[in-house]
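We include the entry.

. . .
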Amino acid sequence: MPRDPTIAIHDCLTEIAILRDIAERATFEAFRNDPILRHAAAYAIQTISEAVRQIPDEWLADFPNEPWGQIRRIGDRIRHEYFRIDDAILWEVIMTHASSLQTVMEAMLKRRLGGSR
């Protein structure tokens, strides 16, 4: 039995909350110098990437301005090129993309649950 895609959306929202918490707690310099924060961010982004793969393409198509292909691919890069991950890229995801992705995920969830949350 296939997994309910709304579970993947909830998983994304959980990980986005972690990224937003990192943004509230740290500056880029502190982030760069804290291996635990960097690891938490990389894992959260990797989890988001995998969760997005579990959301049907037709659901994602409702939000065509999102870079779904990049979101899916960044997880592969974190998994397979972990030794080359640039802290600035992780930080950019945290500071620039997490908030907008949260908005999209909340809208997607609302649409799929018929307006309830």
About this structure: Residues 12 and 48 are 5 Å apart (CA to CA). The two ends are 24 Å apart (CA to CA). The mean pLDDT is 93.
